[in-house]
Amino acid sequence: MIYTVTLNPSIDFLVEVENLRLNQLNRIKNEKKFPGGKGINVSRVLHRLGTDTTVLGFAGGFTGRFIEDWLKKEGISTQFVYVGEDTRINIKLKNEKGEETEINGQGPFISPDQYRQFEEKLLQVKPGDTVVLAGSIPRSLSPSLYEELTSRLSDRGIRVVVDIEGPVLAKVASRRPFLVKPNHHELGQLFNARLETAEEVIPYGRRLQQMGAEHVIVSMAGKGALLFTPKAVYMADVPKGNVVHSVGAGDSMVAGFIAAYDQSGDIVSAFQTSVAAGSATAFSQDLCRKEQVEHFRKSIRLYSL
Ligand SMILES: Nc1ncnc2c1ncn2[C@@H]1O[C@H](COP(=O)(O)OP(=O)(O)O)[C@@H](O)[C@H]1O
Ligand SMILES: O=P(O)(O)OC[C@H]1O[C@](O)(COP(=O)(O)O)[C@@H](O)[C@@H]1O
């Protein structure tokens, strides 16, 4: 079973505004609401790809109910711990030029007792299961929580995948997760470097892997993606297409990789599916669908570097 952890879920409020002007009234041209948060997106894509998954995390108020109801309708099992304040709403704003601006909320307060309830549920996982720890850690919880959970779970034979930005990423890498997936900007921030090209990314991807992560995927939006395994480095082209909204594209990569690896045990082929899923989501309003992933997968070329 693949368990995803979203400590800070969200409703993603996608809005399109033409000629956005500050200090004036703007009207929305198109709007959509989706359940969001990295682990939740991973589970939604896993489910679409036919892989069993359970969502863990915290949910509160009317926004928390919106997410839980949506997942239930899609047939995805959830084990949320309920909290007193509302789950956050994240604004994803797109203008007429296709530029995307994100404003993410802080999220509700989690009490020590609520955290204990969550941990009890999480620690029921068994050797052979996969746990995805993804997205920001709420301010009321320990910033070292991902590192601690990665060590505890990995030591028990559980495959741990982590998607987090900031200094926590380096600390988590040293606890030997199965996979980490920063984008090139996040990787650059970690090492205080400006990374734009694959050549620039490669030494830093290697460094992150040498810190302890078994596999590293570095996505570079429309410029391709890199996979670092213990034996080799691979580069993938991304398919060309019209980007509708890239929210959840990175999460779809994580889901595509896990779903394909779960089925085939082949890392390189899983990377191909991962890129196909990322791009299929970027080319969609909501997350990708299985047929799209299968379609794009065929056109992705891989190079061993
Ligand atoms: N312009 C684009 N064209 C094709 N694919 C894209 C584009 N932007 C994003 N993607 C797909 O989404 C994946 C993740 O995008 P990226 O922006 O790097 O990550 P994140 O969503 O984590 O910030 C890419 O590897 C690619 O597969
Ligand atoms: O927990 P964070 O870092 O605030 O990120 C949450 C946001 O990330 C998302 O999961 C999207 O992530 P990606 O675009 O990187 O795949 C949104 O659904 C959500 O609003």
From TrEMBL:
Keywords: ATP-binding, Kinase, Lactose metabolism, Nucleotide-binding, Transferase. Pathway: Carbohydrate metabolism; D-tagatose 6-phosphate degradation; D-glyceraldehyde 3-phosphate and glycerone phosphate from D-tagatose 6-phosphate: step 1/2. It catalyses: beta-D-fructose 1-phosphate + ATP = beta-D-fructose 1,6-bisphosphate + ADP + H(+); D-tagatofuranose 6-phosphate + ATP = D-tagatofuranose 1,6-bisphosphate + ADP + H(+). It holds the Pfam family PfkB. InterPro entries: 1-PFruKinase, Carboh/pur_kinase_PfkB_CS, PfkB_dom, Ribokinase-like, Tagatose/fructose_Pkinase. Residues 11-284 form the Carbohydrate kinase PfkB domain. GO terms for cellular component: cytosol. It is an enzyme of class 2 (transferase). GO terms for biological process: carbohydrate catabolic process; D-tagatose 6-phosphate catabolic process; lactose metabolic process; small molecule metabolic process. One of its GO terms (molecular function) is 1-phosphofructokinase activity. Its EC number is 2.7.1.144. Belongs to the carbohydrate kinase PfkB family. LacC subfamily. Catalyzes the ATP-dependent phosphorylation of fructose-l-phosphate to fructose-l,6-bisphosphate. PANTHER family: 1-PHOSPHOFRUCTOKINASE, 1-PHOSPHOFRUCTOKINASE-RELATED. This is Tagatose-6-phosphate kinase. It comes from Thermoactinomyces mirandus. The lineage of its organism: Bacteria, Bacillati, Bacillota, Bacilli, Bacillales.
